[in-house]
Design a protein that fits this description.
Length: 184
């Protein structure tokens, strides 16, 4: 992703698009400077403090990041867990940083964003931008259609404590919530 300057964020605030948000594009760039930071964020939403159930040990254990892989390993037996598993990011070739940026802009503009704009601001292809938007919109639609008191699965990251101003929570749902699936 291209770096987004302070002045650009300020200009956006002046235009009023994100005026209600205290969290700016500059904040986003600072908090998520790369894909590793995004992965770490998703991992913390699913498994706070890196403590997760290890299937091998059959007990909750601390996990550490496996270098070069989107995985974390049990600090006792080394069994891997995957924070992206079951989310719409899992089989996506789009960088997590791009996903995060699109989710941020969607949250700050009330979903009024075009694929053209994503293409321009992130440098991804129009096809990727269009697909990313479509999938996120689908997740949002599904979220809105869901009955308020429906039974929810345990371990759905969306139910965890994601700060609303990030606008990232809806995208952390299980992939099964997306009816359209992931195009090849
Ligand atoms: Zn283990």
């Amino acid at each position: 992703m291209r770096p987004i300057s302070q002045s650009m964020a300020k200009k956006k605030l002046k235009q009023g698009a994100a005026a209600h948000l205290a969290y700016t594009v500059a904040d986003l760039s600072r908090e998520f400077p790369n894909d590793d930071a995004c992965l770490e964020y998703i991992k913390e939403q699913r498994w706070p403090n890196s403590v997760a159930m290890c299937e091998k040990c059959n007990i909750e254990r601390k996990h550490y990041r496996v270098a070069g892989r989107k995985a974390y390993a049990c600090n006792r037996c080394g069994n891997h867990i995957y924070p992206l598993k079951g989310t719409l990011f899992a089989r996506s070739a789009t960088s997590l940083q791009t996903w995060f940026y699109v989710m941020y802009v969607m949250a700050s503009t009330g979903s009024r964003i075009t694929a053209k704009r994503i293409q321009r601001e992130t440098g991804v292809t129009y096809k990727t931008a269009w697909r990313t938007l479509r999938q996120l919109r689908q997740v949002i639609v599904n979220e809105q259609l869901r009955p308020a008191h429906s039974t929810k699965e345990i371990d759905v990251p969306n139910d965890l404590n994601v700060p609303q101003e990030h606008g990232l929570s809806t995208a952390l749902q299980r992939e099964s919530d997306i009816t359209t699936g992931m195009p090849a």
